[in-house]
Amino acid sequence: MTTTPSATSALQPMPELAPLLKQLRLSGFLESLPTRNREAVHHKLSYTEFLALLVQDEVARRDHKKFNMRVRRAGFRSQKTFEDFDWSFNGHIDQAQIQDLATCRFIDEKVAVLIAGPCGTGKSHIAQAIGHQAVRQGHDVLFTTQTRLLGQLQAARAMKTHDRRLQALVRVPLLIIDDFALKPLQPPQDEDFHELVSERYERAATVITSNLAMEEWGAAFPNRLLGSATIDRLRHAAYCVVLDGDSYRAPRNPSQTPNFTLEKEGENT
Predict the structure, then answer these.
(1) Rounded CA separation 242/250 (Å)
(2) H or E element at residue 176
(3) What is the pLDDT of residue 249?
(4) Does the predicted TM-score (pTM) go above 0.85?
(5) Are 177 and 146 spatial neighbours (Cβ–Cβ below 8 Å)?
(6) Which of 25, 101, 178, 227 has a Cα-to-Cα distance from 185 of 20 to 30 A?
């Protein structure tokens, strides 16, 4: 069957459209235009129906681009989401509480989520999964560790950009700080952490994970008065999650547990 020139031109968008769409910053139309054009001809769509499909494609493309950009800027350690979280492994987890946090309403409430528990009980996974949920809802998120966060602030102080860096952290709608108190705070780290918490208090939401029981968090500060003031702000109206149970990272087969005994230097192996 021979395609008539008129039919061929109807299936192929005008070449003049490309530079015009780019000028209007609608170059994404070019990705779906050939397909939608053929669909419009085949189904005999009206002009407005055809335009609506193109606009829907462009909105979806931009939303996807924004989502990917937010994920990259968030700095998640890995792609930990609730979809791949093993709820059956640890029967001590309050699934209803975690799913409530996954709604991210605490971000609008501008309060903290404090997650404490032994190593391997799912703290970091849950924190990052909450972050992913927030990104999906259009929130900007930053995931970091206490060590990295305070190291960056210390470096910014040396570069005379400390205030600017601190304010950038204050403005993030959701700041996730992993491994709090894994290392004791040293001056001026304790002052930086206190200032950050104080500036974000009742202004933005914060998620913090720690291996320490919450009543021990204040001991991470060399200045106990400063620590008490910091923890008091964090705990005010906060959602507290206490995890317990076996470690996800424990060997599944005890017989396969490696021997971590260190040989003394010079001994035969």
Answers:
(1) 19
(2) strand 174-180
(3) 67
(4) no
(5) yes
(6) 101
